[in-house]
Amino acid sequence: MTLKLGVNIDHVATLRNARKAAYPDPIDAAAICLAAGADFIVVHLRKDQRHITQKDVEQLCKLFPGKIHLECAATDFAEKIALKCKPHSVCIVPEVPGEVTTTGGLKFTPAVQKRIFSMVEKLHKKHILVSLFIDPVAADLRVAARLGADIVELCTRQYSEAKTAKQCQKQVQDLALSALLAQELGMQVHAGHGLDYHNVLAVADIGGISCMNIGFSIITRSLFAGLPSAVEEMKNLL
Predict the structure, then answer these.
(1) How far apart are CA 171 and CA 177, in angstroms?
(2) Per the residue annotation, which of 11, 44, 51, 69 is the catalytic one?
(3) Secondary structure (3-state) at 18
(4) What are phi and psi of 196, to 5 degrees?
(5) Residue of 51, 71, 79, 95 with catalytic role
(6) Which pLDDT score is estimated for 145?
């Protein structure tokens, strides 16, 4: 099975916003990535809109229907935009003020579960698929299924930051077992966080994963190889 590739273009917007300029335009980046073989465009709308903005999401969903995978926290702000723009899918992620990037999966406290359940119901009414970003832990997979998730995205941070071969092997085993359990629970499986051209193959070889969401490594490779070549290279690896 050929894995699908979601390309996160947040850092195209980061570069644009660094100069408060009109370019590089995430719209152009999305078009190039899709033409080069990406299956989905991934964008993370944060509360502070430090890279992708509400306007970006609105334009992307309008211009590329069925191709936008929106990452966001379970907030009223993000929920309102998702319901308005109707991306193909929404991945609910944890968000901590001041974080450089997402540091791990959702922590399913009773309050978080209640908020996510409400958001899932509303998104489903708009025929939007819902993914939950979780650590590869059996208990969290079962919670995700109870909350009505269509997809779980397994956080690969611990794998990508592993220092030894033994640690890598342990993380791959955890991801593989989690992918199997997710399928048994009736959910699709995605994976992402810290994946690059050197470490992606071990995760890509895990059965049951249908899509890899990768951003930073592709965008940084594009500075030297060009965006079409960077996307094509990753797609070929998958």
Answers:
(1) 10
(2) 44
(3) helix
(4) -145, -170
(5) 71
(6) 98
pLDDT band, residue 99 (cuts 50/70/90)? confident
SS3 159: helix
Largest CA distance in the chain: 48
Active-site residue flag, 44: yes
**What's the token pair of residue 143?**
């919670």
The DSSP code for 126 is T
Closest CA to 81 of 114, 56, 99, 105: 56
| SS3 state of residue 24 | coil
Across the range 191-199, mean pLDDT stands at 96
What string of H, E and C letters represents the secondary structure of 55-96? HHHHHHHHHCCCCEEEEECCCHHHHHHHHHHCCCEEEECCCC
Contacts of 146 (CB under 8 A, 6+ apart): none
pTM across the whole model: 0.95
51 is catalytic: no
Active site residue 71: yes
28-77 pLDDT, tens digit per residue, is: 999 999 999 999 999 999 999 999 999 999 999 999 999 999 999 999 99
Q: Give me the pLDDT at residue 191, please.
A: 97
Helix (H) or strand (E) holding 44: strand 40-44
Residue among 51, 69, 190, 193 flagged as catalytic: 193
Does residue 213 sit in helix, strand or coil? strand
Write out pLDDT tens, residues 65-82. Answer: 999 999 999 999 999 999
CA angle 150, 156, 157 (to 5 degrees): 130
